[in-house]
Amino acid sequence: MSERTARFRDVVAIGEFRVLWLAQVQSRMGDQFARVALALLVFARTDSAAITALVYAMTLIPPLITAPLLAGIADRYPRRTVMVATEVIRAALSALMIIPTLPLPVLAVLVLLVTCPHPLFSAARTATTPRVLPGPLFPVGQGIMSASDGIAQILGFTLGGALVAATGSPHLAIAVNTLTFTLSAIVLRVGLRPHLPDAASAGTGSRSGFALAGIRYVTADRRLLGLAGMTWLFGCFVVPEALAVPYAAQIGAGNAAVGWLMAADVVGAAVGMILVARLGPTLRRNLTIPLAAATGVPLVLTLAGPGLPVTLVLWTLSGLFGSYMVLAQVAFTERIPDGMRARAIGFAAAGLQTAQGLGMALAGLLAEAVTPSVAIALSGAVGSVAAVAVGLHARLGRAPEPPPADASEALPRDAAAAGTSTGRRERHARSRVPG
Q: Which position has the higher pLDDT, 389 or 114?
């Protein structure tokens, strides 16, 4: 395998990547605007922390169900069409949420509905990226995307809160979110080719069989399942985000420190993802297990509840080592056939979302029984030990072997004949892309 790596400017110079990048970043910022606005809006109406938390959680729960169910659509239809359609649907639903007199139950239903298509958009975008960035360009582009995503979340929360504070209107922040969905749809429609999925590896068959094929493909391949498992272990490493408030109280840092604590791992991750993005294939493979294991070590050192400066350094280091996620995601995506990619990514994304939710919930219960610092340290220790076990079992440090025969059998047998027309349809369907 070639050890050639790409430069950042080589990636950014590609017009279609810039389109995907812009659509992702501004849409992610809009999502955070809406989350802040919803939390403030619901609390203002109900004066209930429990109801506010419930509505906020409703923005995170639907992807657990819709990710594996809807992702297959991006393996059946042109991926540009899928992305544009999801953004248009979300823009329309978000626009309804701007109505000031909307009853709270209706608002809650709209919150559920507007988050449901997100896994489909994400799967279609991730499945398209290796086509736009072939070979050594893809890891660099994935690193840029991941780093930008974390930064966009911080900016979205910060600017969203500032906007609501300055205007006193949560509905304006929701309107900004609606605008980002609309702009994303326009940019994708104008600047991206259709990108039809590869019919030879997508298959046909029944809808249920088609949707489950991605899960079967991943679980039948020890390496793929191991890579997915490594990303799921991130549920142990996001615990500081959930316990930032009680941890700040424990160390006597006060509410002003919460924002710094929550930003520390994101800043570290952004730096780490940029650093690992240009590594060659061998280094990426060799560093996946060590970086994953190292991610929990700074959290273990939080056990004694050190002061704010030390904690910020430790959590930033944890985020830096957490850049192993890019390495695992790149290896996972590259190993999957194009026509199976969206379904496999949807399955992995659902697992990650579940792991993060469970990790935060269990750590919260543990923090009630002991202290936040102990809960964070234990979560880090479990994650590090599990990373070594999963990585060694899946042989992630070795050169990859071809997928096993039982994984290939997850591909529908009647699909082979369909592959010959994919290239022709893709060429005829191309639109002009700005360079």
A: 389
CATH topology of domain 214-399+406-412: Growth Hormone; Chain: A; (1.20.1250)
On whether the pTM is more than 0.90, the answer is no
Q: CB neighbours (10 Å) of residue 15?
A: 14
Domain map of the chain by residue range?
Answer: 1-197, 214-399+406-412
Q: pLDDT-based confidence at 179, cuts 50/70/90?
A: very high
CATH number of 1-197: 1.20.1250.20
For residue 162, count other CB atoms closer than 10 A to its CB: 12
- Write the pLDDT tens digit of every residue in 84-104: 999 999 999 999 999 988 888
| pLDDT at res. 208 | 58
Poorest-pLDDT segment among 29-38, 299-308, 326-335, 347-356 = 29-38
